[in-house]
Every structure is written in C-alpha cells, then in structure tokens.
Amino acid sequence: MVQYRRVSEHTFTTIFEPFRIHSVEPLRMTTLDERRSALAGAGFNLFKIHAGDVLIDLLTDSGTGAMSRDQWAALQHGDESYAGSPSYFLFHDAVTDLFPFSHVIPTHQGRAAERILFSVIGGPGKIVPNNTHFDTTRANVEFTGAQALDLVIQEARDPSSSHPFKGNMDIAALERLLAERADDVPVVFVTVTNNSGGGQPVSLENLREVRRVADAHGKPVFLDACRFAENAWFIRTREPGQGARSVPEIVREMAGLADGMTMSAKKDPMGNIGGWLAMNDDDLARQCRDLLILTEGFPTYGGLAGRDLEALAQGLTEVVDHDYLRYRIRSTEYVGQSLLEAGIPVVQPIGGHAVYIDARALLPHVDPLEYPGQSLAVALFEAGGIRTCEIGTVMFGRQPDGSEQAASLDLVRLAIPRRTYTQSHMDYVIEVCRHVAARADALPGYRIVEEPPTLRHFTATFAPIA
Ligand code: F0G
C-alpha cells in the first residue's frame, strides 16, 4: 500500500516551498562578453550552450528537478537483479496505485515508450489524433509513416483566451475524424497537461467526452501523462465539484478513463531519467514487450537501473502531495502574473510547469519566418544568462514535405524545474525579462544557417539578420 502525506490546511498567502535545502549546487555568474561569445560559439542555438555558462536554466522541466532526501535514500535500496528485481515491483505498485493498468513496461524515457507503442500501432495510412502532440510524440508517429493530427479546442490557439482548460480536445473535431476515418485511427491520445499548447490542463469532463466518442468507435484512449499531477491539481482547483477530492483520487479517475499511457518520468514523477508504457490490452502489451527487449532491456527494468525505479516509486508519492502542488502551481503563476503586470504578453491562464511568452506579440517587427521566439530566447540568455526554449516556427515550421510554414504561435517557454530554484531566482528571472522586453523593438530576426532533416531545433545553427 502506497503511503501519501496527509492533506494539510493552508491559510497564509506567501508562496511557501514545502521543503528546505539539504545540499546546494553553485551557480556561476558570467559577464556579458562571456555570454556573447558563448552564443556565437553555439550558433545562437541555446541547446548548444555549455550548461556551466547558464545562470538560471529554464530550458526544460524534464529530468532537471531536485530529488528529495527520501528519493536519494531510495536509490540505496536499488536491487540490480537483471530479472524480477524487487525494485521493479515497488515501482509497479507505485505506478498502478495511481494508474491501475494491467501492464506496466518501464522505459528509459518518454520517447522510448512512444517509439515502441507507435512501432506497433502506427504505420503508413494511420492517423493519430491528440490534443497537441509534443515534438517527440509527433516525430515518433511520423517516423512510422503515420500522420499526427492536433485537435485541441480553438481557444488554445488564442494566447489571451482565459479558458480554464485550454488543453481540452475539440470533441466535435474528434467526432468528425472518427466518423470519416475510424479504420485508420489506432488510438486517441490526450496529453496532460498540454505542453506544446502552453502547459494547459484537460478537464475531467473533456476526458469523459473523449472516452464517449472513442467508445462509440471502439477506439482505445491513451494518456501522454508526463504532467498528470499538475493537471489533476488544476482539475481540483478549477473544475466544478472537484475541490474536495484528493489529487490521487482525481488521477485515478483520469487513468480510469483511458486504456493506457505513455510517460516521461522526468517530469511529475520527479526522476532525472525514466519513463513507462502502460496498458490494459494483453496482446498489445506482448508486442510492446518484444520490442522493449530488442532496444531497451528486460521487461522488469526496461532501460533503467533498479535504483532509478526506486527513486521514481518514491517520487510518485511526493508529486501528488497537495502542499507541493499548491506551491508548484502558485510559483509558476507568480512568474507569469509578474510578467503580465510588466506588460509582457504571456499565454493565459498561466500553465503548470512553464510560463510561455508570446514572442510574436512582443516582437511584432520580426516576421514569423525570421523566428521571433529564437530572437527573444537569445536575448534572455545574452542579458541575464537565462536559458529558455523557443516553441514556435523553429520547432514546428518545417513540414514533412520539406516546405516551411509559420507555426500557429511563436512562444518562448520558461520551463521551471521542480523544487530546484527559489523564489528569489524567480524574481531575478522576472527582472531580466522586464529588462529585455523594454528593449524588444531593437531585437533582430534570425535566419537558419544549417539544419538537420528532423527535430531541427536541437541542432540547427542561426545567424542574426542585420
Ligand atoms: N510528451 C510530453 C508532453 C513531453 O513534454 C515530453 C518531453 C515527452 C512526451 C517526451 O519525453 O523527454 O522523456 O523522452 N518533454 C520535454 C520538454 C523534453 O522539455 O518539454 P522524454
């Protein structure tokens, strides 16, 4: 039986980190000249910057969180038996306590789960709907020859709409798709929270509707559940009738509306590495396990060490803690609200794991095909050593047929690692953003010097347009 912390009362308004610091890592201040030469050396691609040159790293919340004392202790319990490790069973029980699926298949991270699943159910002529595919999910669907289709509600495409569940699936669009092409749809995916759409949650009501439509066509529903606990907290605080429920209870209902899941355990499960694939379908599980053995490892470790499985089992009990989630969501909201108050356009409502600046709105003089998001991300690093991530035309602009189109939005994501930075670090981030925004009209557009055929944002190089 998994033990969760009791649900506490909380009456004061200070954003309170429900932990204290046990071990510290130094942060190195750099000079403007050092940052400029780091940028030039990296071809203005922040993925190519040496992390030692970054002051505050908001590139991603993936694998960058701080593990707890109890997670570090759990590592010592790791049993590295090749087959049937007790660490696997502990991990299995922690996963199924929240996500009661019949089969739990560990993988080294989320995209490994995606690759295995879509290798089995994808393929030419298939079409996989999702609210919004994350980039690796889209790439893994397309790699099999299938089509990845985003069916998020219209409000999600408007950065200023304050819809409380902007991650919701457009149910009418899903119905149309299934009415026309049900035979080609192997699965309906829902990403919680909707990362590429701004870290926006999906409501229980919407998940129930997805279930209803999928059932009408006999289709399985899978969750891409990386940020399930943040999604459940939004349900608890925003969805009518949910306020008295505990987060684990809400998570179990989310899972009960699905037939399976892919997971990157580098997000809400508080791991530095890890993932899993889970499902109820025995035959599908058998096929996935066969592929797992080919590329990841034996089904009771699947690309992870026993110690990683232990740390994830412990992390799963910590992330659903209400004090933690209250702090987490409030802290992200604080950054977003402060930027808004400074007149900086950000996606609203503020998401769970990240704040998304609307770079296209902040840099109206930069054409989308000259990458306003890239320009802003470079400027934040140059001014304050803050590393962020473009989520826009650089990431999504190259089409499968080789043409280039502006993405629907040009955003810069400030992804906040879990339990890693303090509120003063967040105040520094706000200060640097204000400084850069005040000079936004002087920021240049960029052109791509070199790019690979897929997932170009990781390795492309850029040059500023004079
Ligand atoms: N799905 C979603 C919604 C994600 O956000 C990610 C990763 C993945 C799948 C893939 O998982 O990295 O473990 O292979 N997102 C990270 C990010 C990389 O920065 O948002 P992975």
Can you give a write-up of this model?
The structure is a single chain. This protein has 16 helices and 14 strands. The model has no long low-confidence stretch (mean pLDDT 96). It starts with 31 loop residues before the first helix and ends with a strand. The chain is globular, with a radius of gyration of 21 Å. It has helices at residues 32-41, 69-75, 86-98, 110-121, 135-143, 171-181, 204-216, 228-238, 247-256, 282-295, 306-319, 322-341, 359-362, 372-384, 393-396, 423-437; strands spanning 56-57, 103-107, 127-130, 147-150, 188-191, 221-224, 260-264, 275-279, 354-358, 386-387, 389-391, 411-415, 446-450, 461-464. The chain is of the alpha/beta class and 466 residues long. It has a five-stranded mixed beta sheet with strand order 2-8-7-6-5, sandwiched between helices. Strands 9-12-11 form a three-stranded antiparallel beta sheet. A two-stranded parallel ribbon has the order 1-10. The structure holds ligand F0G. Ligand F0G binds at residues 60, 62, 109-111, 134, 136-137, 191, 195, 224, 226, 264, 266, 275, 415.
